[in-house]
Amino acid sequence: MRYEGTVYRPPSEGNSLVIQATIGCPHNKCSFCNMYKGTQFRIRSVDEIKKDLQMAREYHGNYVETVFFADGNTILMKTKDLVEIFDYTRALFPKVHRITIYGSAKYILLKTINELKKLRDAGLNRLHSGMESGDDQVLKLLNKGAAADEVIRAAEMLKRADIEVSQYIMIGAGGKKMSRNHAINSAKVLNRCNPDFIRLRTFMVFPRTPMYDLYKNKTFQLLTPHEALEETKLLIHHLEGINSTLLSDHISNYWNVEGKLPEDKTQMLKELDYALTLDDSNFRYPSRAQL
Length: 291
Hints:
Elements: E1 17-20, E2 22-23, E3 42-43, H1 46-60, E4 66-70, H2 79-92, E5 98-102, H3 105-108, H4 113-122, E6 124-132, H5 136-142, H6 148-160, E7 164-171, H7 179-193, E8 197-202, H8 210-216, H9 225-237, E9 244-247, E10 259-261, H10 265-275
Parallel strand pairs: 1-4, 4-5, 5-6, 6-7, 7-8, 8-9
Antiparallel strand pairs: 2-3, 9-10
Helix pairs in contact: 1-2, 2-4, 6-7, 7-9, 9-10
């Protein structure tokens, strides 16, 4: 396989074959993100992608069971091209039972329901989407390129197409000032989206990003570990009427809280209550850990 630049994939795709279908990210304007900087976005040709799949087949044989097509917002590709590479993937690897990609609301909404259903029929099982927040002020701060109502509409489209939705939430993305609104409004959006997975990430600042500059000049204040845990607790408390799996599958998080909703909600809140009894010295320093 031929890779260009740094290749990113969700932790849950750690055992997947990773193939670059796009290079970089078409949005690449999120104020917190240091990924894909200096990379000119482009969509690889179907022939290029097929050659990489052939190389993977020669190396792995037909034992590949899950495939993740990187980079950022691969959903932007033409539907007919995605269908072709998904069909080709399943022909090369008959044991494949999951094909996944990244896609934010901004680019999901460029598809029609019929297009999404075609992608599902071709083998797209799951889409990883970084909504980050359900609060419009926080989304504007993060420069995500989509408002809360667009996040909801995009998730509803995916659900109608029978594609699993894996939504990512950034604990602390609103800083101290917007922590409560960020948690409550994110829960409201998730309640409307009813995603299959809710994956928690804790907000961290990275050099050479606009959010880092706001942090350095003290315009934006990071949450302490206890504040981040309180925000997580508030988010989970307001999750109602959904059937989702909540996961903290990332090194950025202060506590590994996970479970099924609604049945494990009480237990998750109890775990967070316990974590809140621990001194801050038990957790990483908010601004120093690196992913």
